[in-house]
Each structure stands twice: as structure tokens, then as C-alpha cells.
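retry 2 of 3: previous attempt timed out while embedding oxa(dethia)-CoA. Reduced batch size to 1 and resubmitted. Inputs unchanged:
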Amino acid sequence: MGSIILGTGSCLPEREMSNHDLEKLVDTSDEWIVSRTGIETRRISGKGEETYILAATAAGNALEMAQLTADDIDLIIVASMSAHMIMPSCACFVQKELGAKKAFAYDINAACSGFLFALDNGDKYLRVEQNKKILVIGAETLSSRTNWQDRNTCILFGDGAGAVVLEYQEDTRGVVASELFSDGSLWNLLYMHNAPSYNPELEQPDYPGAHIMMEGREVFKYAVKAMEGAIRALLVRENIGIDSIDLMIPHQANIRILKKLVSRLGIDQEKVFINVQKYGNTSAASIPIALDEANREGKLTRGDLLLVCSFGGGFTWGASLLRW
Ligand code: UT7
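retry 2 succeeded.
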């Protein structure tokens, strides 16, 4: 019994930005970026490719695969930290774009772990409201939240969106279990400014801009340790070994993080889906984009056990198991 994925979809902006393009902006090189991150290109949104447009297009593709229409959808959850506006939510804009009139809609912000947290939210909702169909989306345009003069961060991120349609069925397939974590005491290792949440003198807000700030080395170390811990906890809880996993789809942050994680877990490299070279780190969108690519490339067979894991600002992290 579980929340089954009926369809997947994704949407990437047209414009591709290579490492050589970045060499013209900051003191970096293609060689440095490839060897330290595995990233070769990323996509950058233009006007008409706002976060909610990417999200709605990805959702439309997932609905098409599921052979459903927007009228069938009861709930839309969008995971994002780069919504077009703070209010209304990205999910409400997606609802408008799709014309999903009966759906209610809200956003989740758990940074790069947003999709996993949203999937867990959607799964728990469907276990109570069993006759509903929902959209869970991860969508980001981090190019709009990047300091393009900071070589420590601007080389990492990219834009895009991915979506799944979920329905609860009396079946052994679907979301099996999740282990999710947060540690807010480590917030200052990876964060993005907003206008301060106080203004006692009632002045015009003056803040350093909504840019990602990061202690890369610290984030790197914690990411490997935290994702390994979440995965091991999940495997123990479900009483299975790593060899039972058919495909692992990790958050696509950095090839070195993934290689370290893979070697610590002892999972066969062949079972790990990687596309970070094409899109960089698309935060909450990275897992649903990868899931859609894996699905459309025929890498998923009915009954496969799928492991997804993520790490992001907050800190937030976790792992989930899905029976395909
Ligand atoms: O979803 C989670 C989001 N965040 C992440 O996943 C980030 C996790 N961290 C990382 O991926 C890595 O820490 C980075 C890719 C950000 C950096 O790689 P690193 O191997 O940890 O490099 P570093 O920060 O230790 O820097 C090494 C050197 C420094 O120079 P010095 O001090 O040794 O002279 C940096 O100034 O590399 C320099 N450097 C660069 N050089 C060329 C930093 N950024 C660049 C750059 N190009 N873009």
C-alpha cells in the first residue's frame, strides 16, 4: 500500500551556460570546475522561464504521462527556495497556469531537500485522503539567487523543475518509507538572505541581496556524513541491505560528494543515476529531474527498489525508499 508515481515530468530552460562562459565572469577554469564538482554545463532561465513556468511545464509533462488532466488534481505541493514571489506561493501560480481549479496549493522550503520533504508530505496526505491525486514538484531558478561575482558559489547552481503525479493505491508499490532530518543550529554554513524580519524604525529595507552564502568545505563534509547516516537508518528500519537497491537517485550537488557517498555505502556505481554534469546543482529540482530522466530513459522497471537522498541548507537532509 503506498503513494504510487503515475507520471514524471521535467522542464529545463533553453539557455545552456558552460564552464567556459563562467571563465569570462570570475577567476575560474573549466578544468577546476570539472575536477572539483563534475559540472560541465548548467541551464539559466530567461524571461518567460520563471520558476512557476518551469514547474507548471514539468507538471504538465507528468500529467501527460499519467494520462490525466489538471482537473484530476486535488493538491499541488511545490518545493522551492526561489519562487517568483514570496506571496502568492509558487504552487498557487502553478495552479493558475495549469487551470487546476479544484486543487489547493502550497510551497515547502527545505532547500535542496525540499523535494524529499514534499514527497513525504504528499505521501502522508494521501494515506489519509486516499481517493485524491496530487502533484509534487521541485522547481528552482537559483540563477536569480546567485552572486555572479562569487566563484565559490556561482559555478555550482542551475535552473530547472521536475514533477511527479501521485495516487494512493492498494499495492506493494509506492513510497515505502522516509528518514528526514534537520539541524537549524548549522544554518550559517549555507543560507540565503531575505529582507530582515524586523523593521522597528519603519525604514526602507536595506539588505545584502538574496544570494546564496556557503562554507563549501564544511557543507561538503557534512553532506556525505549526513546522507550516509540517513540511508543507513532507512535500511535498518526496513531491514534490507544496500544490495537490495536497484537504482539510487541522489541529490545532484557535486560528483565528489556522490563518489564519496557511493564508496562509503558500498553500492555498485552502476546503480547510481548521475546527471550533475549537465545541469549543476538545481537544488529541490535535482531529484525529480533525475527521476524523470531515468524513467524516460527506461532505467526503471516495475517492482524496482529506488533509493533517493538529499542534503541542503538548514541543514536539512534525508533519504526515501520507493517501490517502482
Ligand atoms: O546542495 C548542497 C549545496 N552545496 C554543496 O553541495 C557544496 C558542497 N561543497 C563543494 O561542493 C565544494 O566545497 C566546492 C566545489 C564548493 C569547493 O571545492 P573544494 O575542493 O572544497 O575547494 P575549496 O573551497 O577548499 O577551495 C580550494 C581552492 C581555494 O584556493 P586556495 O585558498 O587553496 O588558494 C579557493 O579559493 O580553490 C579556490 N576556488 C576556486 N578556484 C577556481 C574556489 N572556487 C574556485 C573556482 N575556481 N570557482
